[in-house]
Specification:
By secondary structure, the chain is of the alpha+beta class. The protein contains 26 helices and 67 strands. Strands 30, 31, 32, 33, 34, 35, 36, 37, 38, 39 and 40 form an 11-stranded mixed sheet that branches. Strands 1, 2, 3, 4, 5, 6, 7, 8, 9 and 10 form a 10-stranded mixed sheet that branches. Strands 41, 42, 43, 44, 45, 46, 47, 48 and 49 form a 9-stranded mixed sheet that branches. Helix 2 crosses helix 3, helix 10 crosses helix 11 and helix 15 crosses helix 18.
Amino acid sequence: MDLFLREFQDKNKAELLWLRAVYECVGGLAGPGVSCPTEHSVGELALGVIRALQQTVGSSSNTLPLSYRPISVSELVRRQHVPCCSHLTWSSGQYREWATEAEQLQTGDAALARDNLLLIGYVTDRENEMLACDGIMRVKDKNASVHCKMITPSPVWLNQFMLFPSWSFIPHMTSLPNQGTKGHLEISGSPIPLVFHVSTPSPQGTCTHLMGVGEAARYLQQRQRYRGVRLQVCGNVAAVCPQLEISGKRFFFFCLREGDSSVPIMVPDSGHVCWEPCLYVGDHVCVSGLRVCTLRAWENRRVLCVTPESHLQSHQEPQDTKSPGMETCVQLERRTGPHSTEEHLHTHSTVRRRTSKIVNYKGILTRVLDAEWGLFELDGKVGLCVAYQPLQERAFEFRPGAQIEVHNAHFLYRPSSHAPAALLCMCLRSSLRIVAFSCVQSQPVAGPCPATPLLRILLQNHLGISQYLWLCHCVTVLKEKLCPRWVRLEHITAVAGRMLNCLPSPRPHGWGCRRDIYREMLQEPHNCPLSQYSESAPQVKLLSLEQLCLWMESESWSLLSLPSLLPPSAPHLTRADLNPLLSWSVVSQTAWSLPTPLVVIGMLEVCAKTGCLQLRDQTGSVDLVAVERRAGSYRAISNTALLRCLVCVQRFTLVMERLLHTDFPSWTHLDQDHITHRHCRVYIQLCMDDLQVLSPWNATISFRGALQQEAVEACNCGPDTDGRGGDGGSRDRKSMGGNSPDEGDREQPKASTTTGGCRQDKKQRTRQQEGGVPIPAKKPRKAEHWSNVGGKEDLIVEAVGQGQDHSCPRPQRSQETVQQTSEVAGPSTCLSVVFYLQSKDGLTFQNVHTAAAQPGQSLCFFMSVLMLGDVQQWEQNPRNSMLEPRESAGGTMEQVDMHFVGRSICWFPLLQPGCVYRMVAPHTENPTVLHGTQVSMKHGIMVHGTPSLVIQPQWRFYTLPSSPELTMLLQEKQPKGPAVLSVTEVLYSSTVPDLVSFKGLIAQRMHLQDNGKTMGLYKKQGLNALCVNVRLTVQDLASPGQWIHVYLDLSQRPYVPGLIPGAEVVFSAFQRVVSRVCNAVMSNVQLSCELMCFLCRPGPPGPPPPAVLLGNWAQGGAQQCIVARVRIHVVLLLSLQLRWTCTLCGSIFKQDSCTRNSGCSSHTAVFQAEAKAVVEDGSGEAQVWFPSHLIVALLALGAAEWEGLQRSVRVRGHIRVHQGRNAVDAGDLDDPLLQYLSCLCVCAAVCRPLSLSCQLKQNAMHMQDGTIQLKRFQRGDREFVTRVPPPLQLTCTALSEWEPSETQPS
């Protein structure tokens, strides 16, 4: 140091102190023990700093910048915690002007703070001298190193001691707290070497003269090769490819162009990969020491390869090249016009395909859309996608506010609706260069890495740009739907990848073409996956459940058309007949038939408030009606292994039920607002075989988690005072934990019963709330693949209602429950019993006096089971494993009634008659808790009946998989399952009990007039005015002509979804009654239950009724068919009645007032008519009733004649004509209207051939038993007596003309 200070003897004390600081700072670079190799002393380097300062300041005087403090790299990294900048040549005014301009350009961010620091360091391209070059430039000293980016780097700066006059330091905290603060340097000005030093390796081989690109290209095409020849090539840089790493070796390519000739040059891992940031498109460079090599991966073509003795000389003077000029945002907007894009369009398989254009672009990075996915925004309008150019893990930070240049990028116009209209995409031939660093304190964002899950999916599936942008949109939607409640944030991309595998790809071999990286980088003309693009993203729409429900409700009301809900007889209906037809309607549509098919992802759960199967996400929930396919037929879902699975649903049916309470006087008032209440019930229908399971481990939580849950409940054994409690919410949030399936079985913590133990469990549960659920499999599986999985975690069912309602009351704990908890011997000890489900009652609101029920009416159900063995004790939960012999050995087949109250009703949609289940009581060793007990009355009196068992909320049910042992057990025990009849058997069997179970197809649904009752489910929703009496018309599956009416009373039971026309349903325990007209009908009771067997799917209407002859129809009776088509000839009209009816009371309406004596105030009437005709077809005759809307066609009247007839009848109110076969009973022959109608009944215009669609009259169905009657006929003077069947009593539903020349039905 003394020798150094002697050079500055004329300096004052302050300057000497400053020089001493410079020397100490340089000593950290060249002192003993420093890793930076140098042949110069510290004094020489310190003198170099002074010379560099004088060169930078440009002053002839020896004035030193005393305001700038020398600082080393290690001190900068250690002490600088805020972004800062240092510019040696700037004045204070220049900095203020620069800061003001920067803050105006990037609003919301402050400009970089200025610090007067003098940075000195050593530039290198490797972490230490023992490692190979990794292409990342660093500035280092003895103790630290920091990555740096330079505006105009040069390879001659490597391994040099430098003074940095203009730089910025951007610190950022690392993920590990013990590593302190790190950051990166942004070198905006050219550094100045302290001692210029260039290492010149000895040349090897023979160097040729300087070649142009054209001469080098011709040399590569020669067959004759000269070993040891090294080429020197000079040309303009046309493309710089990104640095890649394959099999642990780094390399990159760049191309030189001259005229129409181009030469690819490969830079392998030979110490020169640091050239990549030094090469710019358009620069004129000279490269020496090149050899010729053959690239096998590129069809054995020859390229030039850099050797260790190669050198790069760059001249920053762009020459004329054929690369496109630099584009701006305004120029790109002109390209997005309608005329400029049409020239690139052509049709390919009905998919619009476009050709991208190679452009160079310069702009400012204004926003980071998502750095992990490689999506950015330039100039506020242009998008930038770098996902197709995988960047290695290096110091490549994107900071908003930086000015960048993109070369050889693909310009795409509207590739997707989820991206900006103008999008620049970078392929393996594109390059990006920062021309000006950001001036604001924006945080750095690392570029995408190939290890990113989304980019890995992009490379593995060869996605196009449209598919990739759609996948990015799906990840965003899935984050909102599932994170962090059910899926961890780091696993959401894996869920999106599995969802992508569920969707059908647009091409037979995958989503896109395989990428050939060498062709993409080197071949000309350039071709890559971005050259051709189309809007062929998966043509599906991913909606959250909240969006789905809102869309379905909006769609249901937008499609509402009141006239379309009414039959053709609507103009003749009174208010009492009209409004019930409008009270209920349904709209169903398959999701895959929409213009944009829908895809839904959610958790499969059961709502413990309504007992309905649901699909949930964080935004909401939607009810689910599901069936499963077994042995070629459909039945209600019974597989409990699918609970809490994360599933993807593509094939499902959207069902929207509209419930209206209307008061329309007549059909002419439909355009007025007479709707007093409206409600829309939306749900989806599907088959469980169509589910794609994305995460099967989500179906259960760990056994350890269930133990902790119950340990907390044991500590807080008292019920909550407000009736809410934390059970519903805490268990809901606890399911977010992602315990390992094996970990739950290995660790066996004991249940805590102390206050401290409870607090510890609560803390552990709180930590689990922040977690997610692991994603185990790479590809999704069908639902049936997981049906026999031995659950790795214990089932838990959420007690959450519609949406995210966490207010489910916590069940009160009885003394028996507390005793069970206190008897816990170990976390893995549990009891189980196997039973056969014989029958199940429906969900009803009843006053149940149990500890789990709330005061008042509670939703509950009961089922009768047959125990197949004794209670077994297990060390670990057996779940849905195969049946073991000891479970069915010994014991008698005891019948037990199980009571489900409170949260235990969540098992209702999964427990089906005829199935075998295993019931498990976790961490319990007292076998008596699973034994049924007799009902105790007062004074110790026991009721001798079937033992009963109240199901506790913590008990679990598992569907046993099919196995030979289970089949042999059922054959040995021979349990009696429920007897399910057909509709025909219910109608005509003489041995049918009062309560029967039958199966049929719903043909029609109608809501009847209310009687003051309200639906129990909607009492708290203000929907008391909705109708609760429902009439279903159920057809026989084998004989569609047979049907029966089923009446439902929903006042004391929840609303049952899925009971719509077209659905196959098993009606269990319905009461068979006989109506006043001797017809059999069915009505529900407290025990009744509806089980969905086959879902209604929208489709074309069913086949028309069969064509029959009247004689055959009469002989076959009602058991043959109820609805048929006949071709007949009208003999005469027996009666004709025309009347005007008051729409309010149904009385006769005369002139403009009602004739009711009590004084009806209605001023609205409808015209009604009815006719009874005798018809025959040669094989028999029948009496047919024609309703009002068919009278005008039957009488063959024109519109004017029909209106005149109505006006004439309105004067007198009503008129009736009755005729016999041979005589007319006209009453008053002087009445011209009566005479006209009497003649009309027997005229040839009415008595003509017709084709009718008829059905048997309900009050005459019981009379069609095939009895024979004696009838007298007279022809002339002779009289005949013969036996004939009674005439059919039919009601006409449709009428059309028929010519007798047409073929008769056989």
